[in-house]
Design a protein that fits this description.
Blueprint (H helix, E strand, L loop, with lengths): L3 E5 L11 E4 L12 H5 L5 E5 L17 H14 L5 E6 L1 H12 L4 E7 L7 H10 L9 H12 L8 H11 E3 L5 E3 L21 H5 L6 E6 L7 H10 L3 E6 L11 H12 L5
Parallel strand pairs: 2-3, 2-4, 4-5, 5-8, 8-9
Antiparallel strand pairs: 1-3, 6-7
């Protein structure tokens, strides 16, 4: 199937540096990184992935392929096509889970990781909130209508946002149809695997997290997050020698990484990345 990614060349001086792979959240797309990717590309090559079923990537014929292990395989295909051996990742929510799974299955290839409001322990209440809205809802007649509806749904996540902030975020997450309606920019069938019963024993993601080893790891947490609890984030910081926890004030799940605290933390993390 046809999959899309954005590639920012980066400076010539950093041509030998491992590139940064940016991966968005469950209902997001490459536009999630429209501000951060050019910023990161000032210091190294940056590649923004668009998972299957989102944005300009094709929709899957089988909705049961909308699962993290398939996303890992898609990203590996991209890395192989671009002949990238070693790389760093910035992953929001689902993108962070994919990063951890790649660390566990691609030993030695990751040189750094930013996990944006995600980790091996996730809050059930927040996951249930996401399951409730993914794949639901119809279209809106104008961008203002769509922004207001999006604001109503996510008011607790970004309580300080005004209408211009909501418009910016809505244009990242929605698209205009040929019929003139504003709809979410993903295949609604990405929700299909989420409707399946969860395994009784659960899934232990700590081995995948620990597979990151001693590389620089930045754990970003929205201070109001209902997905990554503060205690779990602190546990993550203690579990790895290269991990650092930074809380982004005033936002929930997940920081957009446009926030000054997030940008400063990512800049510090980039400074720890290998140059060759």
């Amino acid at each position: 199937m046809r999959l899309h990614a954005r590639v920012y060349a980066g400076p010539e001086a950093a041509a030998e540096a491992p590139p940064v792979l940016c991966m968005p959240g469950l209902a997001r797309n490459a536009r999630d990184f429209e501000a951060l990717a050019p910023h990161v590309a000032r210091s190294r090559r940056t590649i923004v992935v668009e998972f299957r079923g989102r944005g300009e990537s094709a929709y899957a014929k089988d909705p049961m392929t909308y699962v993290p292990l398939t996303y890992v395989q898609d990203v590996v295909a991209l890395l192989d096509e671009l002949e990238i051996a070693r790389f760093a990742t910035i992953g929001t929510s689902l993108g962070g889970l994919v990063s951890m799974l790649m660390a566990a299955s691609m030993t030695g290839r990751l040189v750094g990781a930013v996990l944006n409001d995600v980790g091996p322990e996730l809050e059930a209440k927040g996951l249930e909130r996401i399951r409730d809205y993914i794949g639901a809802g119809g279209g809106q007649p104008t961008w203002i209508h769509a922004a207001r509806a999006f604001a109503e749904l996510n008011a607790a996540v970004y309580p300080g946002y005004g209408i211009h902030d909501w418009l910016r975020l809505t244009k990242r997450t929605h698209r205009l149809t040929p019929e003139g309606r504003i709809v979410t920019d993903y295949d609604k069938q990405i929700a299909a695997p989420l409707r399946l019963p969860a395994p009784e024993a659960g899934i232990d993601l700590w081995p995948a997290y620990r597979a990151l080893g001693d590389i620089p790891v930045l754990v970003l947490r929205g201070a109001l997050s209902d997905i990554l609890a503060k205690g779990a984030a602190q546990k993550m910081e203690k579990a790895l020698p290269g991990a650092r926890l930074v809380e982004v004030p005033g936002v929930g799940h997940a920081p957009t990484m446009d926030e000054p605290a997030a940008v400063a933390a990512i800049d510090a993390w980039l400074a720890d990345m290998p140059a060759t």
